[in-house]
Every structure is written in C-alpha cells, then in structure tokens.
Design brief:
The structure is a single chain. By secondary structure, the protein is an alpha/beta fold. The chain has one domain (41-334): Purple Acid Phosphatase, chain A, domain 2. 28% of the residues lie in helices and 18% in strands. It has helices spanning 2-32, 63-77, 96-102, 124-131, 170-181, 204-218, 266-271, and strands at 47-52, 81-84, 109-111, 138-142, 145-149, 187-191, 223-228, 235-239, 242-246, 252-254, 278-280, 287-291, 297-300, 332-334. Helix 6 (204-218) links the parallel strand 6 and strand 7. Helix 2 runs parallel beside helix 3 (96-102) and helix 5 runs parallel beside helix 6 (204-218). The longest helix has 31 residues, at 2-32.
Length: 337
Amino acid sequence: MGNRISNRSTFLKVLGFVVILTLTLLWLFGCHGNTGSQEWRRNFHTIRFGLCADVHKDVIHDADVRLKIFVDRMNREKVDFIMQLGDFCRPCDYNQAFLDIWNQFQGPRFHVLGNHDTDGGFTREQTLEFWGAKDKYYSFDLSGYHFVVLDGNDKKKQGAVSGYPRYIGEQQAEWLKNDLLKTNSPTFIFSHQSIENAGGVENGQAIRRILEEANREAGFRKVVACFSGHHHADYYAVIEGIYYIQINSMSYEWLGADYKHARFSEEIEEAHPWVSYTAPYRDALYAIVTIRSEGTIEIDGIQSEWIRPSPSELGVPEHDESNKSTPKISDRIFSPK
C-alpha cells in the first residue's frame, strides 16, 4: 500500500513538472518563436510609415514642392519612419537642396535604389553615398516587425533583357534566404521593380519562391506583403497568400516621345526637357501604411487628377489592370485571413 502511494505521489510530481514545462514552452514559443498558424502576436504594436515612389527629381520641375508636401505631412502625422521606393534623384550637387528636404523628416529615413538613380554614368555606390543610405540591400526591425529592402538593379550574367538591369543576383538572393531564416517576425519586403509584374524583376518568380518557402518553413505567413514602385501604377495582387502592392509615382505617368506635349511655360520646358514626355499628376501622390497588431494593413493614399491633357485625351492606349494609368494611390484595407 505504501509503495502504491509513493508511486502515485511520484507520478503526480512528474506530471505536474511536465505540465509546467509544456506551458512554459508554449508561452515562450507563443511570444518569441514559431507560432504555427498564429501569425500576429500580442507583443506587436501598431506601426505607421510613409511611402513615396518615383519622385523623379531629374525629370519633374516641381519635385521639391512635392517632396516637401510629403515630408511635412509625415512629420505632422508622426509616422514611425519614411521610405522612398527608388527613382528619387541622381547624386548631383544641384540635387542637394532636394535631398535636404527629405532629411527634414524627424525620424528614420530609408532608401530603395531605382534604375534611374544612376543615370548619367553614376554607380550605385555613388548614389547611396550621396543619399547617406545604408546599403544596396539590407533589413531592419521595428516594433516587432521585420523589414527587408532589396536592390533589383543587379546585372544578369547571361541572357539579360534589353534596357536597364532588373535582376536580383545570386549573392543577394542567398542573403535574402538567410535573412528570412533569422526572423520569426511578420516581414515586409520593399523593392523598386515589382517582383510579381512581368516588367519588374526579371527573376521575380525565383525570388517569390524564396518568400513562399520561408512561409512554408515557418508554418505561418511570415512574409506578409511586398511594396514596389517603378511601374507608376496603382495596383495589387495576391500570390500564395502574399500581397504585392504597387505604389504609384509621386509625380507622373511616363508617355514617351509619341505623346509629347508641352504643358508648362517655356522656361520650365527648357529647364526640364523631359517633363513634356510625361502626364503629370496635379497633386503629390504618396501613402501612409498602417500595420495593426491584429494583422490588418491599411493604406491611406492620395486621390488627384491629371494636369491636362490626360493620357486618354492624347490617345494613349489603356494599359492592362496591372499597369493602368491613374492619378491616384487607392485607399485599401487588407485583413488577416
């Protein structure tokens, strides 16, 4: 009888220890590790950041005014950081005043390299040094979230498409894999060229596989959304549960020589010869992105209008939905599934 009581007491002690250990492990992994289907955890906070894309200081005549409107509002809104998604400005001394406006934001500022930021024979390194930017590709953490900046301007070794390089090389792709392995936080990707659009990153499908594999290995939707510029479009797509969101140009739709039209004074047109190749937006376009702790992503955009004549008035054929001309960034809400 005594042995049975002793055995039962030992069994209950062991059982209690196992229960406590299990609950401890569940708490640890629930708060800090792989959470399975639980994508958003209580220790994450609401975060807000400002995005702008394709300001094109070296094309549009009023780029400084547009950028100041953006920076001033971001300071008023007290967003957590701002980021520009490429085609910002070349590293020329006369662009310093423009860059100074950007640096007036009273918080962290991040840069993405665009294909036009090295026009005129500049290197990516020269542009980054002028901007005071961190690197061609990098990542950072803020408020429990992980943010990754990619550089879609690598040169493909063989068989590249004509025009500007639009590729993510092997070294960068390997870095991306390792970077995603190191985090269990909800992750957001930023690039200039889209990695889902046919006219974007040339090996976009291979890069998407890296993101999708990271989600499969994590057991939850670790990579949540990808933001890009470049296409001057207001559009999003969902592929394998990941949002691909295009942020429209702050300034204009590019039309080209076939639809060249002078809209401004002779002085402006002479000083900015490329502006007549565009269809400018009347207002500066940008977005405030809010990520809430429960997983909702909200985009607060700007609705504007064309400085006439519009593309349709000039007879420009309409693009498909993924590259449609429109002078706005739409308000959108993406709810967790």
